[in-house]
Amino acid sequence: MNIALPESLEPLVRRRVVEGGFACAEDYVRDLILADQEPTADWQELGDMERQEVERINGLLLKSLGSGPPVVADDAFWECMKQRVRERSDLEA
Length: 93
Description:
The protein has helices at residues 10-20, 25-37, 41-45, 48-64, 75-92. By secondary structure, it is mainly alpha-helical.
């Protein structure tokens, strides 16, 4: 099985391989998959609908990784977001 990852993830994977003492990227990914098979206590306490929602959100987060360059969420960014919300609120009033 071959799995393609976005180029933007390559530096992260390489860093995790070194930091985790893995022999190669395949070993790192295998470790992630094995860890994913072990449900956490928090996960076990969730109901079916909550688990589905967590899985939906995780899917959206994974999808967003390939959506474009990262955005720095600094104070200026949040001020801009607040202004946009205010403007929309004014339009809907």
